[in-house]
Amino acid sequence: MRFSIVAAVAACATTVSAVPTPGWKGEHRPGWKTSANPFTFTSTYSVKATPDQVIGPDGPTGGLAGATGYYELGLNSDTNTICYNITLIGFRGDYQSAALTATHIHEAAKGATGPPRIAFPNPVGDEKYANSIGCIKGPFATGIDNADGVDTGAAFQVSQIEANPAGFFADAHSSLAVPGAVRGQIA
């Protein structure tokens, strides 16, 4: 079951649960803006993250069999804000990562690894269904420092995703699959 980011964020403003919204295909819509709610996005993305896309330091890892992640993302590059509706299905084990959380956007092309740029709150629920909904405004913090001792999210701008969505991926890490349980390229 997937949710529309617009409906989810609007629902989040008044309640902690979202209602499924049929019909949104989740394609990237450059310059798309909505006036049906208080949120304005310069672009939106729908990402399906699967175990077969997970890459570790030594290549493909296979991720966490049976797990799937759905990332509905709304970006506003004017305010450096990202809104998210993340759903994990079949996720097992504990969240585990060296970062502040175990649910991220990393900068790397398909088949490569790269640093986290945004750390999302981990989805809450059970193995059948876990969800996290909200918005984060930069500057971002990941808890991982680069070689200069600066957090890998500190200077990050969401406009970088819009400029090269194929150069970023969403993932979640489990104690049963530390390099990643699921992964999906943003484009």
UniProtKB/TrEMBL annotation:
<protein>
    <recommendedName>
        <fullName>CHRD domain-containing protein</fullName>
    </recommendedName>
</protein>
<dbReference type="InterPro" id="IPR010895">
    <property type="entry name" value="CHRD"/>
</dbReference>
<feature type="domain" description="CHRD">
    <location>
        <begin position="43"/>
        <end position="187"/>
    </location>
</feature>
<feature type="signal peptide">
    <location>
        <begin position="1"/>
        <end position="18"/>
    </location>
</feature>
<dbReference type="Pfam" id="PF07452">
    <property type="entry name" value="CHRD"/>
</dbReference>
<keyword id="KW-0732">Signal</keyword>
